[in-house]
Records
---
Amino acid sequence: MRRPLVALALMGVAPAHAFQLWGTGPLAGASVQITTDLELRYHQSPLPDPGTRVANGPFELFPGMSVHDYFEQVGRTNLQVTKGALSIGLQLDEVALFSNRYVLDDEEQHSVPLYGPGVLSPYDDGYFLIEKMFVKNKWDSVDLTVGDAYGSFGRGIALNIVKNTDIDVDTSIRGAKGVFRLGDVDLTTITGITNQQQVSQDNPNFAISPNVAHMVSGARAEWFGPVTLGAHGVIYSFARTTEPALATSIERYGSELDAAIYGATVEANGVAGLDLYLEGDVFDYSAVEMAGSEDGLMGWAAYGSVAAYPGKAVVLLEAKATKDTERITTFSTAEGWEPSNVPTLEYERVITEDGAAAVNSNDIMGARVRVDYAAIPGSFTPYVAASYLIDNDTEGLHFNDSPEHVMHPMTGVEYSANHYAVQLNAGHRIDQRQDEAEGSDQMSHVDATIHIPLFGEEALEVDIDAKVFSWGVNEQQQADFTEMANAVAWHHGEGWIFVFYQDWTDNPLIQSEGNLGDSLYGAFEVQHQPSTNVTLKAFYGAYKAGIRCSGGQCRSLPGFEGARVSVNGVF
Amino acid sequence: MLGLLKRAAAVASLMAFFGGASFAGEAAPGFSLRDINGKEVSLDSYKGKVVLVNFWATWCGPCKLEMPHLDKMDRELEEKGFEVISISTDDARASSKVKPLVKRGGYGFTVLLDKDTTVVSQYNPAKTLPYNVLIDRAGNIHKVYQGYNPGDEVELRREVEALVASGE
């Protein structure tokens, strides 16, 4: 069984050449580009403490042995064929687990099951699939894509199914997308069923579940005149796992609609020196799971931004108000992604479990203003920012039983000159409950990156990220805690970087354990770029689990202990 | 276990070997996007010029450190037929932040919005940012640059100047 897995591992690297297609067919002479992202990880699990009672598991069968340790190999290969205006793309994902096996009650068991029921693979501990594929052609006034495409309308309130590799999310719409340019008018149409990334590139792969196909169709028209006017509509039919025949197929088109979102936008640039954007969307829910009743429910969202540029200052004011917009994510958030979301207005590096309420609230309004002062444009820019939101949502997983007033002042600076660089952000957030007896959740935070040239091509980089939390009264009471994620990097010569990572958290709810102490995590990494298109990394150590947010989406990501070697290349 | 380690080493060695392979000379995929003022911009319209396509995001620290150097190059080499096309990969929700960031830096290069991640997915399927693609006058990819550390702009400028001077 192991031989096929080795073959799988090699598939990700074998065709790493750029070349032109041969022959006399329509693709003769086409360019071929290949991007590979290959990673080999050794997952290390702590042994039970001596004296701990272990029953009915591999630790009982193999006492003192690291039976839960395993190797995982993940490969992602993107192939793109380009000839003139035609592009053909294909992404092959594969994962192989070299986990331990043991026999329990006469049945062979895997210490880490790679996939669950419904996922088809000829190998017990290997899985590969064509994750994305598309054919795209570009004419003078039309771009047409058949296969996997991404879609985003307005500010993403009605539709925002895009790639978010920062948190390892890549859900596409598998169907057809067209962009038609008709003079000053752009018309975008998209229809298909969702295709969720099944193999994680950065996170552990285990118990992979089948792709759940939700139907999404939408259209948007924009007129680019003295101002830009837009209108859009998106309809959704979500899959239920209780109806497996529909959950994974194009038959989803034949089922009733669950939700529809309609919206309009106005954008004006340079009006009296201001850049303006306004958007309003209406959410029409017909699914009982979203509406809460068979009569349906309407929600709405409004978002606006104004940017002004007085002298050396840049002022950006954003405001939003939403009611019942998060219900659209009822099904897909369980799968780790969201089809639409309102801009958060938050500084996302500080969003936490409780702060997620201000991201994913069903009833919230507020504004954020940021003022940058370009003292030396492109070199020295301090800023201040402040946000104020009223979060009236007290249901679901929210910690608060009464409405919250969220206040978040921040300041920071960006400086770079002569290869010195400083990027600093700091602030304090207070989520004050309206019922004063319930107190407030508070968070102080600072993050900084400091780059210091030393001598020759040597340089030192220090990264700091620290947060201190204290919590008000809530049903899911948790202890106050501190967490940090720091790093020191030595840049050596051309293309070598040596990094020491140090994480700290005394959050008792954290789903990971430190390798240097209960709360302390340490790791070392070597990075090397043998050429500008290839990056090699070797990592050993541990980092903590935690919530990570990017682009308004948040994911709870697991911690890691062990070793990993990765290669990323464009060929 | 030793066998597995050997296999892992073999895989890494293969990748390192192929790391020397180059995609130079391959055609750059075409695209059309709207800029931060709503004007349509197509890569085709830059044929005959040396172009640096720069992918970045407002949340990306190294991207912001690199931008002043790209702007300097864009201004100083413009008359020799060089242009920077900067593509923001921020998703739609962060679109309002893009133009203020460009204005505060006083950058003069073209800035396009790839709100639905279509173009970045074609050019840069992995997650590395910033990501620069140097394209020659014939519209072919000359070289790709992953990431940025202060000082990297020296080598990038050297390569751009050589390509501009070569007339390719």
---
Amino acid sequence: MITTIKRSLIRGCITLFCVWHAAAVAIYTVPAEAQDPASRWTREHLAPVVRRYLLATSQWQLWNLFSPDPLRRVVRYAIETRTGDQWVPLALLNERTIPWWRDADELKILRRLEEQEDRWVQLRKRYVHEYCTLLPPGTPLRLTYQYYILPKLEVPMSLSWWRRYRPQRQPTTGIETTCPT
Amino acid sequence: MTLLTRLLFSEISTTGFALMRMGWAITVLWYGIAQSQDITRYFSESGILPHKLEVLVTRQEWRFTILDYVTDPRAVFLLYLIEMLAALCMLLGVYPKLMTVIAVLLQFSFHERNPLSLGGGDTVLRTVGFLLILAPTGRAFSLERLEEQWKSWCKTKRLLPSLTMPSWPQTLILWQLIVIYVTSGWDKLLGDMWIQGTAVSSALHHPHFARYPMWVMDIVGTASPVISIATILFEFMWLLLLFPQRALALLGLTHGVLKRSLFLMGVLFHGGIFVFMDVGSFSPAILSAYLGILDDADFKSLKIWLNHRFRGAIAVLYDGRCGLCIRTAFFLALLDHLRRLRLIDYHDAAERTKVAPDLQFKDLDRVMHVRFSKARTEKGFDAFRALSWHLPALWPLAPLLHVPGVPLIGRRIYAAVAESRKKCTHESCAL
């Protein structure tokens, strides 16, 4: 009798947990871009209820993989140092210069540093300062971007169109700093 | 209530979850080792994200990480080594539950400390890891279980049946996959490029993700309209798993067939992504999660499919009075997932004459013989090489055994081992 009650209690708890976990995961992953009333209501009223559980258990998740549209901004990063009146490259950071087993992580970090624009100035400086181990204190340094945007095509283009496609890179400066003394 | 009970408390084999544990461990080891150079850069006080800047990147509520307290670069690296060691133990089945808890919690800690480099694959690893901690998989695919199997084999020449567990962890991982695919498909419909068929081409032409030179991606990109639409269809097809059996029957489907079809499509889909695009650990992580949804019916179905052209049985004639040979036979029995082998102690004259009346005892006593059919008998290294094509766990090894030079070395090693087995006095040689 006691065994049956204990078993039922355990099963009841597991059932509640499963229903809660499944609901929490589904509620939290409603796409941020979905603007229909049901999605907005879910995000406003239900997501805060499950948020703490998912954050505390590291189960936070969002599945906007290459969506709503894939990433089209292509950037090559460079760390430059000032020599006389000229900025000269110290390190080029792109898919060709970073080893293949490290490039996914490193380029993701660089993309995120760039996306946050001025909000992460301190973080960008910290990233650039890593290169100061090679330089005397006070040396001017900067992070620059060479970027282009892949075209947002409305129709699929032919093989010959892609073969003719030559992107024009635009230069821009991310952050300028000096090596700490 | 009956449906809920069936979904959550049916007894299922632990094999799927044990394989998922191993897949998770391989993925973590693979990408963990690749990240080894950057561990202190990413996660310690001396790296790119010291604690004073952490507030810019991480949330401050409901966030737990041991790396908030362990900040010294050497200590952080030590934690990383502990995680890698725990993942290796998970893979090998050394204290699998304890090692799973250690590896998964450390993985959470690293992810919470610095989320800057995290991608979809890392999120999949966290969700799978969470369920691995909770799932009552017991001793499945562990050294402890191997010992139990060995004892059973010594006593009865039979292996123990698979361990079982309640089905709720499998239901949750299946639900997690449905959520991943359906929300991912939903998000794609909120943009333009997936519907226009240009998304895949665009993604393939992004140099950060392209694995091959652009002229290759140009060619692959021509399939963009088909792949873009197929991706959305594939992702929404996972919703069908929520349909009741009667509704699926109208489409001529069963849950089992649908799940296995989605599994196969998913392997092709994620395999394709992995081959052409460098998107971190996403493909291996989600393919590990796939292993967790496999149940007995799936394994049986796979076995039937793989055996559909196979007839009869393969007779392995081994020396039942030599410990080394008995252990070899035991491991062959363990690896015989397709149930093709018939292990015969050639000292048993009745059994021997049934399958190999033409073989002499003195020949059998010299080297292991394997009879595939009346017309084909292999021995020694060649027997092992031929067997490897029938044992799925050895498939990755099988082609290598045909590489020029390998057979020559293999035959010599085999001959040396076979020769010494009679001289050996170690307890593992003589039971």
